[in-house]
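LAB NOTEBOOK - FOLDING QUEUE
OPERATOR: T.R.
BATCH SIZE: 2
PURPOSE: Compare the predicted structure-token outputs for two unrelated chains run back to back under identical settings.
PRIORITY: normal
REVIEWER: second-year student, initials M.K.

ITEM 1
FIELD SEQUENCE / FIELD STRUCTURE:
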Amino acid sequence: LFLSAMVVVIVIHRQIVVDPSYTATNRVGMFLRRYVDGDGDDGENNEKGLVYIYDLPDDVLQVAGLPPCMGYPGMYELEWTLIDLLKTQGWTTTNPDRASVFLVPHCYVQQYFNTNITFSRTYFENVVTHVKQQYPFWNKTNGDDHVITHMHDAAYCALGNPRPKYLELSRSIQFFSDNNPFSNWPCYNPDRDVVIPNRLSTETPQAQDDNRNILAFFSGTILPGVWHYSQGTRQELQRLYQTDEDIVVLDHHVNNYTDYLLGSQFCLCLPGWQPWSPRLFDAMFHGCIPVILSERQVLPFPQVIAWDRFTIRLPPSSIYSLKVELLRYTSTQLRAMRLEMSKYLNQVR
């Protein structure tokens, strides 16, 4: 359940067949169970897959002069709130003898944005050191059954170099998913790390109707001239289509964001500082077909969500032919994709 602790490294060898009405929180618990026990086809949260969450003292979790751990507000808050969700849905135990997975709570991202990378790295290491020295469980498996959430944009790469040894021993839950094979220090290990949605929403999905007059929509930070941001895709999108009648490109976040999502056929999910984007889930909840311009992004729960049935994945170079690519889809195809997308909404909320 400490999928938010990003130390959950789950290896999945076969497809899991579960009721599609399961929420993403249950999906996290189910994956943890499968990772540890290798069974559990029914996906129920019984004794075998329970998660023990360390109850750490305030002087370990909280830094003097800074707010108490509550998660950094907005798209990073799952660092802390996922703990409550896992408890509420029955995936945790207070008895370590019944646990298969041990979750290490922390508020690293909150410390990171309130201080600096050097300070936050020390904070993180202090939390893990306390767990190793004050409890017997880490040393029994050398951390292999421990999960740590890494809710930063760059996951555990945000901790800087050199990589802490404990990151090679434990498992991670994160938003970030870069399967770039050329990276000297990959921030995502598909054999040990689990990617989850950046928020587990309780909002009601919006209408999935066909009254969409905008072909494609994007709003967000663009940073013209900073080409290493977004791999240049946002900058080129603005340059090529800022005056286009069918594609709306806005270099800011808009108050009527929901109206644009509901009025667009396609929603562009471009990378920012990292490949992943919360726009994927915004699009899904408003019936807008996600267009992902990244070959490196790994999407959440690929073993049970048929992403290729309702998303469009294009290489960044397709930005130059984007409009032609999107106009190939007929209204019948789009309607079928939206219907398919609606089947998986519970699994990303």
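ITEM 2
FIELD SEQUENCE / FIELD STRUCTURE:
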Amino acid sequence: MSAASRAIPLHSLGTFSAPRADRPATALCVEILAAIDPSITTPQDASLESLVGTLWDTVARAAASAPPMAPVAEVARLKAELELSRLECEQIGNEVLAEYEREMSELREHVNRLEAMLAEAQGRTVAGYAWWLFARAGDVISAAAAAPGDLAHKRRPRRDIFSDYERDQIIAVQTAYRRNVLQSDTSPLPPFLTTTSLPSHPDLVRCERPLPPITVTFWLVKIPHSSPFDETARKWLALVCAYQTERLGRRNPLSGAMPDDPTSMVLAELKTWIVAAFARITAPDVLLWQELTAYKNYLTVLLEVNVFPPGAFSTTTMRSVLSTLRDGVCDVLA
């Protein structure tokens, strides 16, 4: 096989244009899919959610294939993030868009570096390309590390695998929970704070099980009206569910808000505890006060070590929700 026939298939990766009102994000996804794998066919009525899912799955398969495809997949994925972020940020408003433009200018530079490397590798044999890629690996890593806001640190390697940032978050959460609620480093964590690693890659972590619904009615029916803390429990559950609903509603590549991320895991566990603690009692008891004190300390640690820093996309943040819950626990203990 000649070197020319084994060249890297760049397709039309350099021709994507930003979504417009007459060119929705679905059309962009179809274009990117065709660029990565021309054999893929998509239904005309495919939803944006299904197209994005197909896009990530296709990119993952391309990245796991022969070495010459990996940088192509990286460029396609970065372009998908870039253009879909633009569409969603324009919907959020000019204030966020200005911040987006500042950060995305450096991400464009990262894309340009990768495309320049691909152009340099064009026409090389597979063996020659592999050696060239090894020699240039440092450039790729440096370019990724230079992404604004440490985007590479916050980007998931796979849809169901935590990013490095999320992994650090859940480790901090688990540590705080063990020390303040369980008061043991060996006792098992509650189900919704439990993670699991891939057998072949212990550093790749994900949520161990699906999280429960976020609809407030799912949780409110679990609190009996006979509970002396009926009103307090319902208020706390409504607060958490309202924040989760709003957070997922504004989900975009810049804000994150994955339904299985550490934020969602912590909130699922807190709602489970609220129901378990307040639904079982007919009168305040010592065990409840001990639990309230433990959770007050747990929430305080999460706030003090800034596990969930203030967000840039809403006035209601995870930090404000945790602070409100901590203050509410203090009021019950008073």
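REVIEWER COMMENT (ITEM 2): Residues 94-121 form the longest helix (28 residues).
FOLLOW-UP: none requested
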